Structures are given as structure tokens and as C-alpha cells.
Amino acid sequence: MAAIDCHFASNKDILSTKTYACEVLSFSSVQTHELDVIWNNAFRRIFNCFWRESVKPLQYFCSSLPLTWLMDERRLVFYRKAMVHSNIVIRTLMSVSGVYVDYIGLCHKYQIPNPYCSVSYIKHAIWRDFVKCVDCKPSYSQLI
Fold first, then answer.
1. In 37, 73, 91, 139, which residue has its Cα 20 to 30 A from 50's Cα atom?
2. What's the confidence (pLDDT) of residue 81?
3. 26 φ/ψ angles, rounded to the nearest 5 degrees
4. For residue range 41-98, what is the model confidence (pLDDT) as tens digits?
């Protein structure tokens, strides 16, 4: 188990460097899908899973978000910090540009009612949305 933890920890370090500044970049849906596939294949390789199986239960039990949710979380946290920043220029840029519209759209997507909520609330809302998508119940054929 320690080998898996070590490998997984280094994988998270690699992920953080590969997704550096993803909160300010806009990816097409094709690019986002390709990044998701790479992240999912890393889980399949680490846990020696079949390629056709969903890795969402593995990600759930590893307390790791899929890349799409992770990128949205980073964008929401970035936008929220920009909105409450002490520098008036940063706050003004946040409200003038189309970024605010994107921020409100993401808040709506993850059912975040208050755009000024805490970072921990944002992370919890995204985790809650991911948990709704995970089917961790074993099927009847898996129980036999």
C-alpha cells in the first residue's frame, strides 16, 4: 500500500505542475476530454483496472477529484480570491471582464448560492457534485 501511496503522491505532484495556471486558461471541450483521459488512465494503471471500467469509484475512495472537477475547483477558488482581494485593480478587473460571468456560471453549475462564500464551501460543493456522479454500489454480478 505504501508503494501505491508514494506513486499516487508523485502523480499528484506531476498533475499540479501540468495543470499550473489552468484557472486562467480556457480549454476546448476536446482538450479537456484529452486531459481527463490521461488522468483516468493514470488511475487505471496504478490500480491495474480494466480500460473499459469507470475510475470514478477509485477516485472517490482515493478522495481525488476527476480533472474536470479539479480544474473547475481551481477556477472557482481563483475567482473568489480575486473578488475579495485587497487590491482594487484586481477586484475591478474581475468585475469588468467576462470573468465574472464565468464565475457566476460555475457557481450556478455547482449550486453555490453566494459568490463570496468561503473556499472550503466551494471545495465541499464541488466534492458533493462529484459524489452525486459516482455509483459506488456494487452491482449484483459483482456480489456473486
1. 73
2. 92
3. -110, 125
4. 888 888 888 878 889 988 999 899 999 999 999 999 999 999 899 999 988 888 876 7
d(CA 8, CA 15): 10
CB 122 within 8 A of CB 112: yes
Q: Which residues contact 100 (CB under 8 A, 6 or more apart)?
A: 79, 94
DSSP 139: P
Report the b/e string of 26-45 with b at 16+ CB within 10 A: eeeeeeeeebbeebbebbbe
Where do the domains of the chain lie? 2-8+25-134
Cell triple for 40:
483516468
Q: pLDDT (tens digit, 9 = 90+) per residue, 91-128?
A: 888 887 678 888 999 999 999 998 899 999 999 999 99
> By the 8 A CB rule, do 114 and 122 touch?
no
